[in-house]
Amino acid sequence: MKTVSLINMKGGVGKTTVAVNLADFLANRESQRVLLVDVDPQFNATQCLLQGDQYVDYIEKGGYTIVDIFDNSTRITNSIVDGTARHEPVKFSEIKPVKSSRGFDFIPGSLQLFKLEMSAGSGRENRLSHYLKTLENEYDYVIIDSPPTPSVWMVSALIASDYYLIPVKPDPISMTGIDLLQGIIRERSENYGFRCKCCGIILTIVDTRSTLRKDAETFFSTNSRWKGQLYAKSILKRANIAKGQLNNQFIRDIDDSTLKADFSLIVKEFIRRTE
Ligand SMILES: Nc1ncnc2c1ncn2[C@@H]1O[C@H](COP(=O)(O)OP(=O)(O)OP(=O)(O)O)[C@@H](O)[C@H]1O
Ligand SMILES: [Mg+2]
User: How far apart are CA 236 and CA 107, in angstroms?
Assistant: First the structure.
């Protein structure tokens, strides 16, 4: 099982878009067993998989979310013996990933993470890693979508991961942020003792009419720290990607052969880089 986190402290660079479509291509084009984990309190990846009413229904029925992995405090459960309510800590073995309609499983995110963060306790950062170890033989890839903040959730994702993948929008501000990102990851890895490796940088939301992609390619090929990390293909800016997301539409569903062919090559390069 290979675990990979989508990381960038810059918001809106395509982390979630890459995470959900990577999961979708790996499962459907590459026949891999995939688990997607949403550790972002904004839970956008979950919204790409469930309509609002489906999510509300899931929560109302007591469905587990990422909060149950991080929070080892008690949860009210009904005793199957006498029907009375009991307060019991959730066991990892009870938290079953949800089957999505896309052929891969996922752990839904939750806005409740914001509440937990305020009272983050020691050791909580390791719980996702421990939980995923219990699923070691069930998946080929675990893809983690993380928030754009150097939070306990981002650290948890890195602790649980073998690799991190960086989506970058090719504009000057985003590119300066990536050195900062590298510094934060190094500092956190020393503090927490994790060894998560970079498995590359993907240019996203690329506007072919501007020279920004060329500038970004030059930056990444000449900068000694990032040499060799840039994927050969990038993800073009396409309004249909943004439009379709809340209708649970993925790149595979969009009638755009260039977009799909490019993404397919990105996924093949991803597989090689995580071998
Ligand atoms: N290739 C693309 N072309 C056009 N729009 C895109 C593309 N990729 C992503 N988007 C849109 O850009 C916005 C940001 O993308 P996304 O949510 O994937 O970024 P993010 O890095 O996960 O953001 P956040 O930091 O808030 O989690 C979304 O509205 C998404 O639909
Ligand atoms: Mg996101």
Answer: 28
Q: How far is the CA of 16 from the centre of ligand 1 (A)?
A: 7
Asked if residue 157 lies in contact with residue 128, where contact means CB atoms within 8 angstroms, the answer is yes
The residues, any chain, with a CB within 8 Å of residue 53's CB and separated by 6 or more, are none
Is the pLDDT at 121 greater than 70, yes or no?
A: no
Residues contacting residue 225 through CB under 8 Å, at least 6 positions apart: 179, 182
> Which residue's C-alpha comes closest to atom 30 of ligand 1?
242
Q: What is the pLDDT of residues 237-261, one digit of tens each?
A: 999 999 998 889 999 999 999 999 9
92 assigned to some structural domain:
no
How far away, in angstroms, is 106 Cα from ligand 2 center?
A: 15
Tell me, what CATH number does 215's domain have? 3.40.50.300
Atom of ligand 1 nearest to the CA of 259: 1
Q: How confident is the model at residue 102 (pLDDT cuts 50, 70, 90)?
A: very high
For residue 209, give its domain range. 2-51+100-273
Residues with CB under 6 A from ligand 1: 11-17, 40, 42, 44, 148, 204-205, 235, 237-238, 241-242, 245
The pTM of this model reads 0.95
Q: Which atom of ligand 1 is nearest to 245's Cα?
A: 31
Model confidence at 119: pLDDT above 70: no
Ligand nearest to the CA of 20: 1
19: region left, alpha or beta (phi > 0 left; psi from -120 to 50 alpha): alpha
Count: domains in the chain: 1
